[in-house]
Design brief:
The protein is α/β, with parallel strands linked by helices. It contains 5 helices and 7 strands. The protein has helices at 14-24, 49-64, 98-109, 172-178, 180-192; strands at 5-9, 28-31, 68-77, 84-85, 116-127, 130-142, 158-160. Strands 1, 2, 3, 4, 5, 6 and 7 form a 7-stranded mixed beta sheet that branches. Strand 1 (5-9), helix 1 (14-24) and strand 2 form a beta-alpha-beta unit. The longest helix is centred in the N-terminal third of the chain and has 16 residues, at 49-64.
Length: 194
C-alpha cells in the first residue's frame, strides 16, 4: 500500500479542520498546527487574502520544514465596497467574535437593497519547496437577519446563489455543494492527484 502524503493544514480552527478533513479523506496524513506542536501566533499582516494565505504557509514551512497549506477567506460585500474583505475575522474587533461580526454587517447594510456578496477562499500550498495558489469563490447575498445555527463565522447570514437557505441552515453536505472553501480544496486535491 502506498505511503500517505503528509500535509499540515496551517490552522487551529476546529471548524475549518473538520470541513477540510472530511473533504481530503483518507488519502493524506493530514495534521493541524497543534499536531506538529506549533503554538505561535501565525502572522496575517498583508492587505490581501492571497497575501495572508502565502504568509501563513511560508511561516510554517520555514520554521517546521513541512509540506503545508494554509487558507485565508474573506467575505466581500458589494454595498460595503468589498468590506469586510481581508478583515473578515476581526471586522467587529480583535476578539474575532462571529456574532459581533454578523451584527456589524447587518447594521452596516441596514435596509440597503443591494445585498450581493461573495466568499473568497485562497489556499496556498507549499510542497517540496514549490508554492501553488488555489481560489474558490461562492457568490450570494446577505440575509436580512441571522438564520440557522450550523457552520461558523458568517454562515448564518450568507445565502449562496441557487439556495434560499443560509449556510447556517445547511448541514455540511449541503454546504459543500456551494462552498468557496470546498471549491478551493477540490482544486488542491486535483493538483495533488496529478
Amino acid at each position: 500500500m502506498p505511503t500517505k502524503e503528509h500535509l499540515v493544514f496551517v490552522t487551529n480552527n476546529p471548524n475549518k479542520i473538520a470541513e477540510v478533513a472530511r473533504q481530503l479523506g483518507e488519502a493524506y496524513d493530514f495534521q493541524s498546527l497543534a499536531d506538529i506542536g506549533c503554538t505561535e501566533e501565525i502572522p496575517e499582516t498583508t492587505d490581501t487574502i492571497p497575501g495572508n494565505a502565502r504568509q501563513k504557509a511560508q511561516f510554517v514551512h520555514e520554521r517546521y520544514g513541512v509540506n503545508c497549506f494554509s487558507e485565508d477567506t474573506g467575505l466581500e460585500i458589494d454595498a460595503l465596497d468589498g468590506a469586510p474583505g481581508v478583515d473578515t475575522a476581526h471586522y467587529a474587533g480583535p476578539e474575532r467574535n462571529a456574532e459581533a461580526n454578523m451584527k456589524k454587517v447587518l447594521k452596516s447594510l441596514g435596509r440597503v437593497p443591494n445585498r450581493k456578496a461573495r466568499f473568497r477562499t485562497v489556499i496556498c500550498l507549499i510542497r517540496n519547496g514549490q508554492e501553488h495558489l488555489f481560489e474558490g469563490i461562492c457568490e450570494g447575498n446577505i440575509a436580512g437577519r441571522i438564520r440557522g445555527d450550523q457552520g461558523f463565522g458568517y454562515d448564518p447570514i450568507f445565502i449562496p446563489n441557487g439556495s434560499s437557505e443560509t449556510f447556517g441552515q445547511m448541514g455540511f453536505t449541503a454546504k459543500k455543494v456551494y462552498s468557496h472553501r470546498a471549491k478551493a480544496v477540490q482544486k488542491l486535491i486535483d493538483f495533488l492527484q496529478q
